[in-house]
Design brief:
Number of helices: 3
Number of strands: 10
Radius of gyration: 24 Å
Structural class: mainly beta
Helix content: under 10%
Largest sheet: 8 strands, antiparallel
Shape: elongated
Order of helices and strands: EEHEEHEEHEEEE
């Protein structure tokens, strides 16, 4: 990062004042920029996926050789899982003199899930023992939108550059839970379920029919 990704055309995404060495670039779907961010509050990937020397293989926390109780102890009453994903549908940039101009059309998705520890305990303990699972603390929010961005950078001298980048956002869909009252009991013969779910959804071409 010392040269601020100077040889990467998309370095202006880090700072709109940055300029790269190429005079022109173009990005197309599937071969252009793709970014994915995943955040989880209670545990790290190394907690859920470990190397087992006895079988010379990676195992998950659900494997018989794994210490599932130690993994479950990491969970809180409320845990969060956030994801932010985006891909560039088309992008281009060019340099003229001391000015670098760039433009992007991207698809972005953001989702946040708040889940209780019972959601993880279910696959760990549920199938083999009679237990009661409460998912009332769970909620979800998700949004998808198109992003059209345009930027401009100007090189004043070798030590100073200024830049600007503006964005126009156009929403595609969004989802938000209002009520999520779900409980589940497990047993050998019967799995009783109680559910009361209410959510707000906005999406094109979506029609929901219901009876009053």
């Amino acid at each position: 990062m010392k040269n601020f990704l100077k040889n990467i055309p998309q370095n202006y995404r880090i700072n709109p004042a940055f300029q790269n060495d190429c005079k022109f670039f173009i990005g197309l779907p599937l071969v252009a920029t793709l970014n994915l961010t995943l955040e989880n509050s209670p545990f790290a990937l190394s907690d859920a996926l470990k190397y087992d020397k006895s079988i010379d293989s990676l195992i998950t926390f659900l494997h018989p050789n794994a210490d599932t109780d130690a993994f479950v102890s990491l969970l809180k009453e409320k845990n969060t899982l956030n994801t932010d994903a985006g891909t560039s549908l088309v992008s281009f940039g060019f340099k003229t003199g001391k000015v670098f101009i760039n433009c992007d059309v991207s698809q972005r998705v953001f989702a946040k899930l708040i889940y209780p520890d019972d959601l993880i305990k279910l696959p760990v303990y549920g199938p083999d023992s009679a237990m009661f699972f409460d998912f009332n603390k769970m909620s979800a929010n998700a949004s998808a939108w198109n992003e059209i961005a345009m930027g401009l950078s100007y090189k004043i001298n070798d030590n100073l550059q200024i830049g600007w980048r503006g964005k126009l956002l156009s929403g595609n869909a969004c989802l938000s839970t209002n009520i999520l009252d779900v409980t589940l009991g497990t047993g050998e013969d019967l799995w009783p379920v109680h559910s009361h779910i209410k959510m707000d959804v906005s999406a094109p071409f979506l029609t929901v029919a219901y009876d009053d």
